[in-house]
Amino acid sequence: MDYINIRRWMMEAIRSTGTKARRKKPFAGMKAGSIFFLLTVPALVLYVLFFVFPVGMGIYYSLTDWNGFSKTYRFIGLSNYIELLRDSRFLHSLKFTFVYTGLVVVLKLGVALALALLLTGPLKLRGLFRSIFFFPAVLSMITVGLIFNQIFFSVLPPIGESLGLEWLSKNILGSKDTAIFGIVLTNVWQGFAVPMVIFIAGLASVPKDLREAATIDGASPVQRFFSVTLPFLIPMLNVNLVLAIKGGLTVFDTIVAMTDGGPAQATESIGFLIYKHGLSEMKFGYGTAEAIYVFLLIALISFVQFKFLNRKEAGQQ
Fold first, then answer.
1. What is the pTM of this model?
2. Chain centroid, CA 130 distance in Å
3. Helix (H, G, I), strand (E, B) or coil at 75
4. Are 260 and 270 in contact (CB under 8 A)?
């Protein structure tokens, strides 16, 4: 009898303990703000560890003469930043980068918008053509650069000679005056696909009744585009401009694959020059100062661009 009572008492104790444990919530007694903060701690730690800390160290090293390998270096303040403003090689790379970015932005977005308008119209096999036009985006820029390098070197010159076209019979990448156009053409071919998809998504948001009303009112296709379609594309245009400008200002892999900065340093972009100074010429502090300049430049351009386009978008509403 005592054994039965002891067993019953033990089972009730275990049952009551399990019930209390189940009722106790993991964050009981904590405020909602504290719980949300704890949930953001892992992401915050990763952000600080892999972004804030490297950026802070980069700013610090830009104020030194560190070569990237030595254990000793001197703190030289703003000397690197001042020297860069007098560096003709740096200023030439800025000029090349701006010209390259302007050409790429205009051509890439122009081609992307034209194809987006074509592929949203009454076109047979529209899905197939969308897949074909998107194919270059899945290729790496290094691969595309190497392919076009061989095209400019081995394919086009023989064709130009057979046709008697002198401008086509020479390697476009072999001249300081024309190498930039070969790089731009390659980048546009590989990079128009993503802006095209974004524009297609924007065109899908244009109300059909507005298009039909404009057509009934006698508006031409050009008038319908600028009065009806374009206002709905401004957010997509904003995104595409940011991506295209950022890609142009930080171009690197195309230069490495096609010209390696040549001929005679004519195609050294600012991103490629940072790489050369930081790793090849052992001027890590100097190259980091260049990177800080590029960061500030991109931030300023993006700020002005967003201000302008957001104001234009608000005016359309």
1. 0.80
2. 22
3. strand
4. no
